[in-house]
């Protein structure tokens, strides 16, 4: 499963790129607002750091507007993935970008039928939102399982990008359900590596090693 980081914070992206764990970046209008920075400038800066896919979301809600904005965003760099809302207008824009061989991420997906439409429109990625379904007492990971089954039934090539990940558990659920990619906030990525028994075990090994008086180098 690929790991994308879900942030518009360039500092966090730089840190995580240095771990070698990342496969891409996703942003959304809320994350850009949180960064307090100019959207196109941030996308250009991220794309200068990496050739991995970087999702940049349109703000128009009509097909023509999405196409105009998406083409502008796609011109920033070859690795820009145009992020479009899962609406009929967004799906029409998605089909346009498919014809132009521009990558797309169809976002705000909350049902298997919506994901079916995204695949039929030729989306590169579809983003089902696990956390927001859990918020309303539904099982977000069930949606990933359903989409996996449907895409496999028909051989759709659209990649399932599990989004709205809030916890380390969500990452496990997405992996078990067969997501191709998970986009994860920086703080959650860091938590994935943590375990109290790892810390405790390391402390003991270091103490015992010190007692040997040896050095490896
Ligand atoms: C997905 O692409 C979105 O950027 C993001 O995962 C939404 O997460 P949230 O529901 O925690 O805002």
Walkthrough of the structure:
The chain has helices spanning 10-17, 29-35, 39-49, 63-74, 88-99, 112-120, 130-135, 140-154, 168-177, 186-192, 196-212, and strands spanning 2-6, 24-26, 54-57, 80-85, 104-109, 125-128, 159-162, 181-184. The protein is of the alpha/beta class. The protein has an eight-stranded parallel beta barrel with strand order 1-2-3-4-5-6-7-8, surrounded by seven helices. Helix 8 (140-154) runs parallel beside helix 9. It starts with a strand and ends in a 5-residue tail after the last helix. The model has no long low-confidence stretch (mean pLDDT 98). Erythose-4-phosphate binds next to helix 7.
Output the keywords.
binds erythose-4-phosphate; alpha/beta; single chain; globular; eight-stranded parallel beta barrel
Number of E-state strands: 8
Low-confidence stretches: none
Give helix and strand order, one letter per element, not per position: EHEHHEHEHEHEHHEHEHH
Report the β-strand fraction as a percent range. 15-25%
The count of helical stretches stands at 11
Mean pLDDT figure: 98
Helical content stands at: 40-55%
Span between termini = 36 Å
How many strands, what sense, and barrel or not for the largest sheet? 8 strands, parallel, barrel
Backbone shape? globular
Q: What order do the strands of the largest sheet run in, or round the barrel if closed?
A: 1-2-3-4-5-6-7-8
Radius of gyration: 19 Å
Which structural class matches the secondary elements?
A: alpha/beta
Ligand inventory reads: erythose-4-phosphate
């Amino acid at each position: 499963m690929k790991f994308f980081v879900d942030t518009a914070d360039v500092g966090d992206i730089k840190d995580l790129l240095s771990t070698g764990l990342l496969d891409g970046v996703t942003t959304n209008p809320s994350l850009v607002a949180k960064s307090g920075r100019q959207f196109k400038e941030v996308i250009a800066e991220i794309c200068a750091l990496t050739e991995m896919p970087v999702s940049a979301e349109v703000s128009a809600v009509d097909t023509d507007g999405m196409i105009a904005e998406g083409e502008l965003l796609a011109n920033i760099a070859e690795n820009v993935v145009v992020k479009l809302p899962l609406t009929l207008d967004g799906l029409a824009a998605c089909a346009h970008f498919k014809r132009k061989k521009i990558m797309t991420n169809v976002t705000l997906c909350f049902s298997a039928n919506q994901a079916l439409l995204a695949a039929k429109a030729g989306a590169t990625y579809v983003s089902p939102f696990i956390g927001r379904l859990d918020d309303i007492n539904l099982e977000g990971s069930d949606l990933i399982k359903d989409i996996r089954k449907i895409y496999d039934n028909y051989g759709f090539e659209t990649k399932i990008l599990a989004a709205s990940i809030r916890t380390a558990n969500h990452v496990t659920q997405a992996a078990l359900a067969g997501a191709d990619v998970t986009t994860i906030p920086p703080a959650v990525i860091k938590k994935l590596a943590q375990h109290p028994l790892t810390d405790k075990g390391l402390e003991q090994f270091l103490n015992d090693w010190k007692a040997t008086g040896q050095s490896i180098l």
